[in-house]
Design goal:
This protein is α/β, with parallel strands linked by helices. The protein has a single domain, classed as Aldolase class I (TIM Barrel). It contains 13 helices and 13 strands. The strands form 3 sheets. Strands 3-4-7-8-9-10-12-13 form an 8-stranded parallel barrel, surrounded by 5 helices.
Length: 348
Amino acid sequence: MLYKKLVRPIFFLLNPEFAHKFVVTVIDLFFLLPFVRSLVNRIFSVHHKSLERELLGLKFANPIGLAAGFDKNADHYNNLAAFGFSFIEVGTVTPKPQPGNPKPRLFRLVSDHALINRMGFNNKGVNYVKLRLLNRRNPNLIIGGNIGKNTLTPNEKAVDDYLFAFNVLYPYVDYLVVNVSCPNVKDLRLLQELNSLEGILSTLKSARSNFNIYKPILLKLSPDLSNDQLIATVDVAERYEIDGYVATNTSTSRMNLLTPGNRIAKIGNGGLSGKPIAQRATEVIRLIHNHTHGRKPIIGVGGIFTPEDAREKIEAGASLLQVYTGFIYGGPFIVKKINKYLVNHSIY
C-alpha cells in the first residue's frame, strides 16, 4: 500500500525512462551496504517446497521471473533477484551495441495500467552483457538470455546476428529466447514468417550441437498473430524441437483503452504491455498448451498484476510466469504476494 499511495506517485512524476534508471541506480547504491541484500531477501522472498519447479532441465525456486527489457544489459540482476525472483531474463541483446529509437520512447497509460514502449533494442551489445554475467553472485538464480538482431542488419542477414549473439551468450546463461516478435524494431516481426523462422531456428539448433552442455531454446511469440498464424508458427518451432515458449511479447493493438484517443495518437507507435493485453496473452498460452498437448513449458507474460492474474495464466497452461509492467505499477511486493497465494491455494 505504501508503494501505491506514496512511492509510485512520486516516481510517476518523472519521465518513465529516467524513473527506471533512477530506481535501479538507487537500488544498486543501497545494496552497497553490507546488510541490505540479506534484509531485502528476507523481506521479499517466499521459500516453500510447493513453489519449486523442475523445467527445461533447470530447477526454479519459484515460478516468478522478471521479463526481458527491465535489465537489458545485465547490470542489475544480482540485486533485483533479492526481491524474490527465481529467474531473470536479460536483453534483448544484439551483437553490436546500439542506442535504440529516439526519445521519448517509453510512455505510461496510468488509467489502463499499461505502458507503451518503442525502445528499439537499446543495449550495450552481447560482449558487454557476457562480461556482466561473469559476476553472478547467486548460483541458484536462473538467467535467461533474450537475443535479437541489430536494427541496421537487413532481415535477409538476420540469422547471422542471432547466431553471433547465441554463440557469445550460450556459455553464460541458462536458457536462450529467440525474439522475432518485438514490434519496436523495423520489420523484425517479418522474421516470424515461416521461411525466415525456419532458417533461424535450424541454424541455432545446429549451433547448439557445438557445445558440450545442452541449454534450452525458447521462442517468444507475438499476441498480434492470429490463432492460425500462431499454430503455424508453433508447428515450425516443434519441427526444430524448440524447448519452450514465451507468451507473449508486447502488442500493437490499441483496442479498448481508457486513455483518450488523442493522447494515444500523440504517443504513436510502440508495443503495448500491461493490463490491456492480459486476456490475449492468456488466450495464446492456452492455444499453445492445447496444441502441444502440454508437452512444452510456457513462460506466461502479459498483464500479471495480482495473484489472481497469475492463477489465470497457470490454469491456461503456463509453467512459469514473468512480470514487468505489473512490477512497475504494483511495486516490489508483487512477487511475494503471488508466491504466497500459490502456496496458500495449493496452485500447481
